[in-house]
């Protein structure tokens, strides 16, 4: 054994493996194998050696959908098979994939209960079960007319059925209605409106189609500067905007939306974004979620408020930022770092700033890009620095960026790699802080 006694060799090897001698193997369980669960598992597996922690991902199905692609399916610009991949194959070697539906979490005993009766014990739990569409929350939605003249493009099945309906549509009233907030990708229904305008123009029937955007918000979007910009774009395209409309029910026979204050909006074709909530198991897990089934967490560290060994990322989290894949991606780095810090008994890193960015398709092969965080509104300028994609402006470059993003999603984002030149924090370089503020104060 040379200069080292046997015990010292064991300690040395353990230190080289990054763990203290006597540390038991930790069990990390990740609920949800979508955007957040997959990238978190892969990031952690790259950081933590296999003899230090086991990583298990649980998901209820084996179909990973690239959800931004759903927007293009209704217009015949994308196909279901091109935006779906087997879930397990997106996970690195050394990550266990378990197919199963979560029924509840027992925080006191660190146990996950699955619907099939089995249990999973954890040392650290990561919840990444996203948001679900609560179709039954809106009276009449799935009654007569559902998937005939009332559709949603927020599911693969809905987007595919809508493509057929749009193809057969020869004119009439098309209503795009967001029922309530929060929703995934709050710009997606606006993008749908812009693409629909372009689609009907290309088909030569735009003058026979009345397009109306109906929202519960007091403007086209949540962020004031952006809301004015997008509201203006609806006007330029001759789209009607109905605000502060809270849909109570859908009458798919007569073709009308009815609000809680008894306003009626007639339609021949309705494209709706249903009410979103957290996954059903959250409601059955005492102390975990809020009244909508989303999980409150520290907005800087992503540690849940329910228990220190439970972390949350993506749409499942109740955080004051958008429910978007970009946010989920930026959260991934902070989350993986903090899970490692937690396992080592170190204090957590509180640097996540709520960074979000979204390409907004505006039709005719153009798109805008917006970039913001918890405190900074979308501003004009360029991203990610003074040379880059134009912010808050329609451009072909942004449209190309949106289309190319799918490849980055499968090959960089999900495998848990950093995108070249793109950090997790919102960049300040390239943004016009002063000029946007001056324009705003002039209004
Ligand atoms: C139409 C549309 C367009 C979009 N466009 C964009 C865009 O352009 N840019 C952008 O940044 N974002 C966009 N998004 C949003 C983006 O797709 C989501 O924000 C992102 O996927 C969130 O990741 P997540 O991991 O939180 O949830 P998801 O990726 O939805 O994954 C959640 C996973 O949890 C699983 N799960 C749920 N409940 C259970 C249970 N009980 N047991 C086991 N497993 C369960 C689900 O099966 C799913 O695989 C869009 C979304 C839609 C619908």
**CATH homologous superfamily caption of the largest domain:** FAD/NAD(P)-binding domain
Helix percent band: 25-40%
Distance between the termini: 79 Å
Number of strands: 26
Over all CA atoms, what is the radius of gyration? 23 Å
CATH-defined topology of the largest domain? FAD/NAD(P)-binding domain
Q: How many domains comprise the coordinates? A: 3
Q: Report the principal-axis shape.
A: globular
Largest sheet properties: 5 strands, parallel
Residue windows where pLDDT falls under 50 for at least 5 positions: none
**DSSP summary: helix tally:** 9
The small molecules bound here are: flavin-adenine dinucleotide
- Main sheet: which strands, in order across? 5-2-1-9-21
How much of the polypeptide forms β-strand, as a percent range?
15-25%
Q: Briefly, what CATH class of the largest domain?
A: Alpha Beta
CATH architecture assignment of the largest domain: 3-Layer(bba) Sandwich
Mean pLDDT: 93
Structural class: alpha/beta
Describe what you observe in this structure.
The protein is an alpha/beta fold and 443 residues long. It has 9 helices and 26 strands. The chain has helices spanning 6-16, 35-47, 156-168, 188-202, 224-236, 280-283, 325-343, 396-413, 433-441, and strands at 26-31, 53-59, 63-65, 84-86, 95-99, 102-106, 111-114, 119-121, 124-127, 132-133, 150-151, 172-178, 209-214, 240-242, 247-251, 256-259, 264-266, 269-273, 276-277, 295-296, 310-312, 317-318, 356-363, 366-372, 381-383, 389-391. The strands form 9 sheets. It has a 5-stranded parallel beta sheet with strand order 5-2-1-9-21, with helices on one face. Strand 13, helix 5 and strand 14 (240-242) form a beta-alpha-beta unit. Helix 2 runs parallel beside helix 7. It is globular and about 70 Å long. The relative contact order is 0.13. The structure holds flavin-adenine dinucleotide. Flavin-adenine dinucleotide (FAD) binds at residues 32-37, 58-61, 67-68, 70-71, 101-102, 128-130, 153-154, 184-185, 188, 279, 281, 314-316, 323-326, 328, 358-359.
């Amino acid at each position: 054994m040379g200069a080292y006694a046997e015990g010292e060799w064991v300690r040395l090897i353990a230190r080289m493996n990054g763990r203290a001698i006597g540390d038991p193997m930790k069990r990390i369980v990740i609920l949800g194998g979508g955007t957040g669960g997959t990238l978190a598992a892969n990031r952690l597996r790259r950081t933590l050696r296999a003899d230090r922690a086991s990583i298990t991902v649980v998901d209820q199905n084996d179909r990973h959908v690239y959800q931004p692609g759903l927007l293009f399916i209704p217009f015949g610009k994308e196909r279901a098979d091109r935006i779906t991949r087997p879930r397990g194959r997106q996970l690195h070697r050394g990550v266990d994939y378990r197919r199963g539906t979560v029924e509840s979490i027992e925080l006191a005993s660190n146990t996950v209960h699955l619907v099939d009766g089995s249990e999973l014990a954890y040392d650290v739990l990561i919840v990444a079960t996203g948001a679900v569409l609560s179709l039954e929350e809106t009276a009449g939605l799935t009654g007569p007319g559902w998937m005939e003249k009332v559709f949603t493009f927020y599911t693969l099945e809905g987007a595919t059925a809508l493509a057929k309906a749009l193809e057969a549509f020869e004119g009439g009233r098309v209503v795009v209605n967001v029922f309530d907030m929060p929703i995934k990708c709050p710009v997606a229904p606006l993008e749908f409106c812009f693409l629909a305008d372009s689609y009907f123009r290309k088909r030569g029937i735009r003058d026979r189609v009345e397009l109306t955007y109906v929202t519960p918000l007091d403007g086209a979007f949540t962020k004031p500067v952006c809301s004015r910009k997008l509201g203006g774009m609806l006007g330029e395209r001759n789209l009607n905007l109905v605000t502060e409309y809270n849909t109570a029910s859908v009458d798919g026979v007569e073709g009308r939306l009815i609000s809680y204050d008894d306003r009626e909006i007639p339609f021949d074709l309705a494209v709706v974004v249903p009410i979103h909530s957290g996954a059903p198991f959250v409601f059955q897990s005492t102390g975990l979620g809020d009244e909508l089934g989303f999980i409150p967490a520290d907005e800087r560290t992503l540690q849940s408020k329910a228990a220190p060994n439970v972390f949350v990322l993506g749409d499942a989290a109740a955080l004051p930022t958008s429910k978007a894949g970009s946010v989920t991606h930026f959260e991934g780095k902070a989350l993986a770092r903090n899970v490692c810090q937690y396992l080592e008994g170190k204090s957590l890193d509180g640097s996540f700033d709520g960074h979000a960015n979204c390409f907004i398709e505006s039709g005719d092969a153009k798109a805008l890009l917006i970039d913001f965080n918890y405190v900074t509104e979308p501003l004009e300028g360029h991203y990610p620095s003074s040379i880059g994609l134009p912010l808050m402006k329609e451009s072909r470059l942004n449209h190309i960026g949106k289309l190319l993003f799918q490849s980055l999603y499968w090959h960089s984002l999900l495998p848990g790699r950093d995108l070249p030149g793109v950090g997790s924090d919102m960049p300040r370089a390239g943004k016009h802080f002063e000029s946007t503020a001056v324009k705003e104060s002039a209004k």
